[in-house]
Design a protein that fits this description.
2 copies of one chain form a homodimer. Chain A is an alpha/beta fold. Chain A is built from 34 helices and 32 strands. In chain A, strand 15 (404-410), helix 16 and strand 16 (426-430) form a beta-alpha-beta unit. The radius of gyration of chain A is 35 Å and the shape is elongated. The interface between A and B is large, with 66 and 66 residues.
Chain lengths: 910, 910
């Protein structure tokens, strides 16, 4: 045929094939492919996309010859199904669906059961003996046809069923009797007539023609045009139209319907898995009114069908080289496959299936690696709730840190610690958390906050600790005074049990049973294959020896970010820190006055006197300041010894003190009083210091390297602690590779300034200990200025680590503490595709990173570059990091396997 | 002479000349030049820089021949001065000074009066009859020689004079008698011996040799090396040594000393100006013990000298083509010129001199334009204190907005307004100001704040208004309760008089007399010449018709930034704004729920019901929100009508609403109560709204275009007001050129989104009014992301205006509200050369601006680009803006002439 507009599929043969997507659309090509494979899909035909174009171009007329081709194919279809349109004795019913070369959810809905009319319905009643079923599908068809094909709003039909139900006092649609449904059919026809302006067409051929036209027209519906625009879909001719025979699983006991998987989608085990119901429709399986039977029962009930089905399952899995999720219907002992697709599966199943399929030589290792989504891997590392557990969801929040936790709720960090000490398991509930809560967060099994996003303090710390966390559960109303919270009408008190699903972001009532993760042999094999292909290094963000050890077990190749500020909060250290802060101002002020006087060449008498006075005044704050740092030194050294041991042989990047000093001071009155009495000052003095350190925009305030410009002594103390620890560990024959990292650098001169202090202190340690250790000094790149002046910064920095959390905040001008309020409007309006704090904004923040790397390597071609923001654990961001030539990513311990797999994926795809 | 190491100058002839700087150093070359000009400088000789190198290279030995050349030149000098080293009868005293090719303040101090010894001193006493004078210069010489040449600390000599003064109960050095000074000479010699280890050298030839060596050595002193390092001075051989005869104006009544200017440095008038004292030293003129006589008296007392001097003044001015500041000494009826340099002058004088000199054909217009520093021009536009006024400085702050203001202090904005209404002149004193204070700031003559920097709210608003302002006067302790302030021990109450010097940043006690600015004809002529050469356009930042008119008078070529938020605060408008804010949340929330439901294709019954319910709930907030905007519309329209009229024919760039909504809510309890009663809600509801809108980092919060993403209606109202105003004014036959500017854009999609709303609203206005006006829509570039994605943003933006205040904050990560605390450490450590909020940080923020322009013009080659941050009025930043190809700068009205001149300077300098 010179101008084939219609392609038939059925009876084991199809005119089309998989590669004809452009002509037949995705759905049509796939139906043809399956038919050719010998899969018994219900037969039908596909009208080509070019025909749609011709129809549209002609202003809504069928091109010459189409009518004939449709008729011919309809006849073939009737023959294949042994049924005829409009024949009450053996009625052919069809579905009509759109289907372009690219999947377009914005297009026309499906029309089912086309072919019904007043006569055909009599035939169906006669055949099935089920009038209720018949009238129900008929009234549904009128509704669907009216709405989808003729543009008569569904609403109007709904109005009729509502008023009928009211009159007969029916609660559910299912309460309506056959007679009442028959009445409804009449009413629906009246509605149709009123709104469409014509009678409902009784001629199935006319129904079909109208439905085909509706599909053609839907190509240029506003919704479809908008969808193509938004998704940049161009170059398509139109949509294909698929007309396919309906098959019914509910026409008698020789009928049935079911869903099956070629392998177990929960465990991945190789077995036929699924369930079915005889004399039922697909809906019945879903609705749960009748209990479906497991697959193997089919083998007993209908061995021939079972054999045919399992044979097809094997064939489809081999063909698609992946586990298949298959819908089937048996109509009068004849098996039809309605759909097959790659089956969804749990992470555990995904890993097992991938590994097994390699063993079965179905796929190779590289394909296997690509079979598991990096984001899934996370599931394998945390406990989870038993899938069978009954969930009563109290409210939802953000899935801030994955896993499952069960505990009694407490509302303060102190309570969390003391209850834990009494052997209780607790969930810490806070409006939001602050660094003071660290102890309590560690003591809790899970953390729940009312405010804050995916990168709020609670979320970041919880992920770091591997604690389950649900953040920003806005429906909570927490009352610290009464130690209780209200949520959707319920009030929970301290001590009440809840469960948190950190992977789903759900808060659940009561104690749900959990299962621990099993890092089975399959997982190990799989991750080894991933490591074989990836190019990007994967390090971890870890602040404690425990975290470091865990991350190492998860495959981390070093520490990319060891934050030192957490070390300042623990136990008694905070008091030394606070002592330092109280003295810091006077200390710095006097030191700054003294320094220039000491270097005056020929001081005047006045200058000599001033110097003496200042030095006297300086004694007290200096003693306090130095004393505090001296107290902190051994603690820090001990911390680093632990970390270096845990990471022996691997690099450890230590970020020197970063947060503003006010974070170390208590914010509430009671704690301020406690501090005052401990520090032997007045509460007013503490309050005054808190006020003095208050900043309007703390994000852009006195922190990071800026602290060390004012107080270089702090970084000196830290550098000393690092090197004393490094020498201690090195003497135990363990290799240490310390990398000292300076945060918040904006200009090379800052780095030069602090580097001089640090190197000077380190050299002192080396002389004292008569021993040297190799080390690097590098910088975070997190201030936009640092990115655009990276060529100069690389003159001093021996490595770069991109702090993309802050770079995002400054580069995009979003405070991550505040943006939650309006970022939702951005996502709603489609202004950002992803939350930029979760997935690196490539065009903006990413551009700054790219500029930073390029400039940095202009100066230092082999510059080692990594990322240590939250993005380091996000697969999409990891892809970008790989693309722009980073050496490694660093992420929280539990994201390490995710990152390893994501790095493997990009290496394979790249 | 084949190897000339010493160059003589004197008796009207010199061996060197101006262009021999490399060999003779700057000072030596200049002395030679003046000598050759016929200027009677005290004779002397210069040892070359190469000789210094040879000395250093030889490890501290005089090269062969140097001794002979020094001796020969010394002999010539003795002859020229008719005096001899070591000759008590006619003693030659000399000064010895270093002098490299580049001025280096880090090098050796001067040694004066070299040649004194025990015998010479006798001769001087005999000659002057003034033993006190003689012993005093002798003991000073021993001190200076000991300290500078021999490295015996000045401190040791000071110790001697202190103990002597204690013993004889002298308060001042001048209380010491001749006899006591003679004793001091002996003690000084003992100190010298003790610390130097040798007797003080009595042989002047030896003194000279040691002094020359000391100068040579000073070339490699740590101070000098450090100085060269810091200033990147390389390629020099060494320092020259200048040995020059001392002359004395206090050796009798035929002696004298004075300072003169070739034109009046205060007014610029062409007249011989200056003063002198007979029989006196330079010090005496400065010390103010005797009153100097005006220049013309010299004409009467000594006509020949006067004639010679004025002749030289003319000659020097002609030679240097600039007004000269000349020091002279008359020694025994012989005139010596000690120094001539370009004279410092007031801004008014600078302008007048430049204009006059063009008329006198001494310089051309371009040279004239370069003769006035842009930063000086500011002085001419504001009142100032009478120079004669006695100043009692209470404390100092930052010179935040120039000018002089006198008034009674008040501590609240309300008081400022009510006192003003009673006819009083007031100074508004606040800890810091906020947008609520605008009315009071306007009512005050000047503004004084305790906190905040050069770009604090008070400073920015005051400069915009042309109000004098001293900001960040940290010594103030303001007590709002008692309406008083303490400052350095004094307490001032409400109603006390103070004066503010906004140009010097001084707070002065009492009422000082002021003088108004005179924009004389010279100024007009001068600025016209500047405009002839500049390439960069100059616009103004103005929010009111008054400011616009003033700026236009100052030469502004349009408005580059018209902020609309100030318009929201005035009078009753704030209540409409607050009404809008109270309703905004519910409004937006419901609107967002309704919108998707309305577009559902076939809504379910539940959806239909929900929609009905939501629409009902929506009525109240919608009425309030729309009502508030409707109230604001006529106000805004009226504002724009005024501004368009004032700027008829020139472009007006209007920035749509920028600040976060919380800035419009009252922060203190009392005002919140007032608002509650007015809005008919509970105070708790107001408080709750304030808390809800509170942001942790407001700089990075919900403001600018982000507001319009949530509430596009606000920008629609503003766009409507602008266009209705534009049409109204256009109908009055005045040309309007509105440019609508969107703030805080970070992604092109934001701009696209709001632009669609704005254009839609504008088209509505055009249809309603049956009239069109041309307009542009552009954007601020102030978020780093906008700069690095400017190519995409330029797809939608018809112009760019760089908001470098915010770009600096985000790009460098500095909150301008907080950075004051630590930026001082940065300046102290030399980490930033300039305060980045005052002068654009070229390498960082400037790089982002450059990237932004380059990318923007890739997309839109003729893209109009300007700057509207504070930097637009800073000469150094303007230079940068010119260099990177901006079209215009925009600054506060009073900076417009500054910017015009700065733009002319950079155009001339190329």
């Amino acid at each position: 045929m010179s101008n084939q507009m219609v392609y038939f599929f059925g009876n084991g043969q199809a005119e089309g094939q998989a590669k004809m997507k452009q002509t037949l659309g995705g759905k049509g090509a796939n139906l043809a492919e399956m038919t050719n494979l010998g899969v018994p899909v219900p037969p039908g035909f596909t009208i080509t996309t070019d025909t749609c174009k011709d129809y549209v171009d002609a202003g809504g007329k069928w091109p010459a010859g189409l009518k004939e081709q449709v008729d011919q194919n309809l006849a073939k279809l009737e023959q294949a199904m042994q049924a005829k349109l409009a024949d009450p004795a053996a009625p052919l019913l069809v579905s009509v669906r759109s289907g372009a070369a690219v999947s377009m959810p914005g297009m026309m809905d499906t029309v089912l059961n086309l072919g019904l009319n007043d006569k055909v319905i009599e035939g169906i009643i006669a055949k099935t003996g089920n009038a209720r079923f018949a009238y129900d599908i008929y009234r549904r068809f009128i509704d669907m046809f009216g709405d989808v094909v003729m543009g008569c709003d569904h609403e109007h039909f709904e109005h009729e069923i509502d008023s009928l139900k009211k009159r007969v006092k029916a609660k559910q649609d299912t309460d309506l009797t056959a007679l009442q449904l028959a009445e409804l059919v009449q009413r629906y026809k009246a509605v149709y007539k009123k709104h469409v302006g014509k009678m409902f067409p009784q001629d199935p051929t006319q129904q079909l023609e109208l439905a085909i036209n509706a599909v053609f027209k839907s190509w240029n519906s506003p919704r479809a045009i908008k969808y193509r625009e938004l998704n940049h879909i161009t170059g398509l001719h139109g949509t294909a139209v698929n007309v396919q025979a309906m098959v019914f699983g509910n026409m008698g006991n020789d009928c049935g319907t079911g869903v099956c998987f070629t392998r177990n989608p929960s465990t991945g085990q190789k077995e036929y898995y699924g369930e079915f119901l005889m004399n039922a429709q697909g809906e019945d399986v879903v609705a749960g009114i009748r209990t479906p039977e497991p697959m193997k029962q089919l083998g007993k009930k209908s061995p021939a069908i079972y054999k045919q089905l399992t044979g097809l399952m094997d064939k489809l899995e081999r063909h698609y080289q992946d586990m298949q999720d298959i819908e089937f219907t048996i109509q009068q002992d004849r098996l039809f496959i309605l759909q097959t697709r790659n089956g969804k599966r749990t992470a555990a199943a995904a890993v097992r299936i991938a590994v097994d399929m390699v063993k079965e030589k179905l796929i190779d290792k590289k394909q296997a690696v690509l079979r598991v989504e990096p984001s899934q891997v996370d599931q394998l590392l945390h406990p989870s709730f038993k899938p069978s557990a009954k969930r009563q969801v109290l409210c939802k929040g953000l899935p801030a840190s994955p896993g499952a936790a069960v505990g009694q709720i407490v509302f303060t960090a102190d309570d969390a610690e003391s209850w834990r000490d009494k052997g209780k398991t607790v969930i810490l509930v806070r409006i939001e958390t602050s660094p003071e809560d660290i102890g309590g967060m560690d003591a809790a099994k899970g953390i729940l906050t009312q405010r804050g996003g995916m990168t709020s303090h609670a979320a970041v710390v919880a992920r770091g600790m591997g604690r389950c966390c649900v953040a920003g559960a806005g429906d909570l109303e927490i009352n610290y005074k009464t130690r209780s919270m209200k949520v959707n009408g319920k009030t929970l008190k301290q001590g009440d049990w809840i469960s948190l699903d950190g992977s789903a972001g759900e808060v659940l009532l009561g104690q749900l049973p959990t299962v621990d993760p099993e890092l089975s042999g399959h997982f190990g094999t799989f991750m080894k294959w991933a490591d074989e292909v990836r190019k990007l290094g994967v390090r971890t963000n870890a602040d404690t020896p425990e975290d470091a050890a865990r991350a190492r077990a998860f495959g981390a190749e070093g520490i990319g970010l060891c934050r030192t500020e957490h070390m300042f909060f623990e136990g008694d250290r905070i008091w030394a820190v606070r002592q330092m802060i109280l003295a810091a101002d006077d200390y710095a002020e006097l030191r700054n006055q003294i320094a220039p006087l000491e270097t005056v060449d020929s001081p005047s008498r006045e200058q000599v006197q001033t110097l003496a006075r200042l030095k006297k005044e300086f004694r007290d704050p200096k003693a306090k300041f130095d004393g505090a740092l001296k107290k902190l030194l051994p603690y820090q050294r001990q911390d680093f010894i632990g970390i270096f041991k845990a990471m022996a042989g691997l690099p450890v990047t230590i970020r020197l003190l970063d947060p503003p000093l006010h974070e170390f001071l208590p914010q509430d009155e009671k704690s301020q009083k406690e501090m005052a009495s401990r520090m032997k000052v007045t509460p007013a003095a503490v309050k005054a210091k808190v006020d003095e350190l208050h900043e309007i925009n703390p994000m852009l305030g006195h922190r990071g390297v800026r602290l060390a410009i004012t107080y270089p002594e702090i970084y000196r103390m830290q550098a000393r602690a690092i090197m004393e620890a490094a020498i201690t560990v090195a003497r135990q024959k363990k290799k240490v590779l310390p990398e000292i990292m300076i945060p918040l650098v904006g200009t090379v001169l800052e780095l030069k300034f602090v580097k001089k202090h640090i190197v000077d202190e380190i050299e002192k340690v080396f002389r004292e200990k008569k021993s040297r250790v190799k080390y690097l000094i590098g910088t975070m790149i997190e201030v936009p200025r640092a990115a655009v002046t990276a060529d100069r910064i690389a003159e001093e920095a021996e490595f770069f680590s991109f702090g993309t959390n802050d770079l995002t905040q400054m580069g995009m001008g979003f405070s991550r503490d505040d943006a939650g309020k309006f970022l939702k409007d951005y996502v709603r309006q489609g202004l950002y595709e992803f939350d930029p704090f979760q997935s690196l904004d490539r065009r903006g923040t990413g551009k700054l990173v790219k500029i930073g790397i390029e400039l940095g390597r202009l100066t230092r071609p082999k510059l080692k570059v990594g990322i240590c923001g939250e993005h380091g654990g996000d697969p999409r961001s990891i892809e970008f990091c790989h693309g722009i030539g980073m050496n490694y990513v660093s992420c929280s311990p539990f994201r390490v396997p995710v990152a390893r797999l994501a790095a493997a994926h990009v290496a394979l795809k790249g």
